[in-house]
């Protein structure tokens, strides 16, 4: 055999080997694809402990029938493996030793680390299926967006894509996540009226302090309970609060949105311009008012004690780093010492068997335990006559922004789309919200009526954490939480109508690249210093000036405001209606 012939033979052999490898590889790829195609659709549904197990429900069977597919449903409760180890859509199930025995979900429902707006913003948008491209294949969702334009607008990211579809608990919940409450029994006992200004509120609080309105002779009343600015519990994971003292900014005409990232960091919008409230004159007036109340024992200093301790500790550490110490004024190590009131203690005060609290912020009257019937909501008092107060418009009560998302690389895209659409079916929506055994549904004259059975609390349902759609015009009876909310929000409805959309940040606007703080912010520490020194001839002017200087120089507030303006302008370009 010549050398050329040998080379030709070798080339032919290599070609045959390569061809066989390609065929084998192709077969292998098709086998893998066939296996994936034949595997069930996997849906992870997150909810609280004690609620209905999805896989055992009839409505889950209806979802499977809608997509004509097999579904593996996984309940994700707070202590489950997935709840503790999944940190985003991109979590590698197959390589995580805690998750490797679980099939990676194709669909995530109400699963905050994956479907939450903050999680989406921190992750990679390419990991999520852009559901907007497939709305024509989802008739329930399309009708939802057409009939509730607010849901369509809210569902969109800044670029108009839809990576998570929110649940809608119905127009009854189209209000605030927090309200201001007063003890009506105490008012009646002392012959007082509901206050409408700060001056009147102070008079009422003084009467609550001095008049023994709970009748036990103990002088144990807390005229105005304020949620602590820091949770003094080692176990706490709280990062912000939507029912804190900042709500008094609404008395000045400044709208808060304490359930939105920008609002938590004390940015608001006025006439389409982002404003920094943290160093505003309105903020200073709120601080002065609270310090005045604290100086007369009308607001508990204990709610601010830990923030003040942290401020002193941080200042002492900074001085020590510069070689400055003050042996005559030692500062306790707050990492080991906990002072003031914890969140749990504060909530116990609200729900005490003997009513202790005159005024407080809360979601509804259930916060006051067995004395709930003594409390009623009232509009936040105006700073003074001539000011029209506004109210917090975070809007997270109606819409569950921790909605439903689909993995972009799912092999079961068609099935996933049909399953997601089925969640927004009317009957399936009711079953998710209330549980199958707690409702009677009837239809008459074009209206749907839902009668909630039992004590009206539907313990197996997911409630407002569901992902479905309660249609406009639905008549609901016997729903106790809904009735409590409507009663709490009623005094604010006229305020909402007067406010309109002016001064309201887009719901779900989230920008992880913009810095900020939540609970225990520099603003909390500034106020805590005012409150805890309110009776000691404290120099409020010097403290305010130092705080403003620090906010401007150390925290980049001007840069943050510009960044939020860019985000706001982008979000406001989203489509407001589905065309």
UniProtKB/TrEMBL annotation:
Q: Which SUPFAM superfamilies match?
A: Periplasmic binding protein-like II (SSF53850)
Q: Record's InterPro entries? A: Bact_solute-bd_prot1
Give the signal peptide, or none: none
- Entry keyword annotation includes Transmembrane: yes
Name assigned to this protein: Family 1 extracellular solute-binding protein
Which Gene3D superfamilies does the protein's record reference? Answer: Periplasmic binding protein-like II (3.40.190.10)
Sequence intervals crossing the membrane: 12-32
Originating organism? Bifidobacterium oedipodis
Instruction: List UniProt keywords, sorted A-Z.
Output: Membrane, Transmembrane, Transmembrane helix
């Amino acid at each position: 055999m010549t050398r050329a012939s040998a080379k030709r033979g070798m080339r032919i052999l290599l070609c045959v080997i390569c061809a066989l490898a390609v065929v084998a590889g192709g077969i292998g790829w098709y086998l893998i694809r066939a296996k994936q195609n034949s595997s069930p659709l996997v849906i992870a549904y997150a909810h609280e402990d004690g609620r209905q197990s999805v896989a055992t429900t009839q409505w889950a069977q209806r979802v499977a029938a809608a997509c004509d597919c097999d579904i593996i449903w996984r309940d994700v409760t707070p202590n489950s493996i997935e709840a503790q180890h999944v940190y985003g859509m991109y979590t590698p199930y197959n390589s995580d030793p805690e998750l490797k025995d679980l099939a990676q979900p194709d669909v995530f429902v109400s699963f905050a680390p994956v479907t939450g707006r903050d999680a989406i913003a921190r992750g990679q948008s390419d990991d999520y299926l852009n559901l907007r491209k497939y709305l024509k294949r989802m008739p329930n969702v399309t009708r939802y967006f057409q009939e509730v334009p607010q849901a369509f607008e809210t569902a969109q990211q800044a670029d108009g894509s839809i990576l998570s579809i929110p649940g809608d608990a119905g127009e009854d919940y189209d209000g605030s996540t927090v309200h201001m409450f007063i003890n009506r029994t105490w008012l009646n006992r002392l012959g007082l009226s509901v206050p409408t200004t700060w001056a009147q509120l102070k008079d009422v609080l003084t009467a609550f302090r001095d008049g023994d309105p709970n009748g036990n002779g103990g002088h144990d009343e807390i005229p105005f309970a304020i949620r602590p600015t820091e949770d003094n519990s080692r176990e706490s994971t709280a990062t912000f609060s939507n029912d804190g003292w900042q709500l008094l900014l609404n008395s000045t005409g400044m709208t808060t949105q304490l359930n939105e990232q920008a609002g938590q960091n004390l940015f608001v919008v006025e006439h389409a311009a982002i404003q920094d409230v943290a160093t505003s004159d309105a903020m200073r007036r709120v601080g002065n008012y609270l310090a005045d109340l604290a100086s007369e024992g009308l607001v508990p200093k204990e709610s601010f004690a830990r923030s003040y301790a942290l401020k002193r500790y941080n200042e002492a550490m900074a001085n020590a780093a510069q070689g400055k110490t003050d042996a005559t004024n030692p500062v306790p190590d707050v990492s080991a010492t906990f002072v003031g009131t914890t969140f749990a203690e504060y909530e116990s005060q609200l729900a005490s068997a003997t009513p202790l609290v005159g005024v407080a912020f809360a979601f509804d009257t259930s916060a006051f335990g067995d004395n709930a019937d003594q409390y009623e909501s009232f509009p936040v008092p105006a700073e003074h006559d001539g000011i029209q107060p506004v109210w917090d418009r975070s809007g997270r009560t109606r819409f569950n922004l921790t909605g439903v998302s689909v993995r972009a690389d799912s092999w079961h895209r068609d099935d996933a789309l049909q399953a997601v659409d089925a969640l927004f079916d009317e009957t399936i929506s009711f079953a998710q919200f209330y549980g199958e055994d707690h409702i009677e549904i009837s239809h008459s004259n074009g209206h749907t009526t839902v009668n909630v059975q039992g004590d009206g609390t539907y313990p197996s349902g997911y409630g407002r954490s569901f992902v479905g759609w309660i249609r406009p015009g639905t008549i609901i009876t016997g729903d106790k939480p809904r009735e409590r909310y409507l009663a709490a929000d009623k005094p604010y409805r006229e305020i909402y109508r007067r406010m309109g959309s002016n001064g309201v940040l887009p719901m779900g606007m989230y920008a992880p690249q913009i810095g900020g703080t939540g609970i225990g912010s520099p603003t909390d520490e500034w106020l805590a210093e005012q409150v805890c020194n309110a009776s000691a001839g404290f120099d409020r002017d010097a403290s305010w000036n130092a705080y403003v200087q620090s906010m401007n120089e150390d925290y980049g507030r001007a840069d943050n405001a510009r960044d939020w303006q860019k985000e706001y302008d982008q979000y406001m370009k989203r489509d407001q209606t589905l065309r």
